[in-house]
Amino acid sequence: MSKTWINKYSESNENHQAFIEIQNQCPLCGTDVEIEVERDNSLEIQAFKLKEQAFCPKCNTKTRQKEHSWH
Ligand SMILES: [Zn+2]
């Protein structure tokens, strides 16, 4: 059951976010990527969005960009 953390509920879980941050490495060079999380607090809570970007400082490329939203 080690993969049960990856579901639509855990994506909005703070512990899960931290887990991603620790685990994430560049698929090209293996360097730890820098995670940038943007929260848009200007919207109503119903439309709360979390924007997540992973950036490799070595390859100078974005390795991942995700947008989470929850209700
Ligand atoms: Zn890289």
Number of distinct helices: 1
- Please, what is the oligomeric state? single chain
Helix content: 10-25%
Strand arrangement in the largest pleated sheet: 1-2-3
Taken together, the total number of domains comes to 1
What does this structure look like?
- This protein has 71 residues and is α+β, with helices and mostly antiparallel strands.
- The protein has one domain.
- 14% of the residues lie in helices and 34% in strands.
- The protein contains 1 helix and 3 strands, in the order H-E-E-E.
- Strands 1-2-3 form a 3-stranded antiparallel sheet, with no helix packed on it.
- A hairpin with an 8-residue loop joins strand 1 and strand 2.
- It is elongated.
- The two termini are 26 Å apart.
- The model has no long low-confidence stretch (mean pLDDT 70).
- Zinc ion binds next to loops.
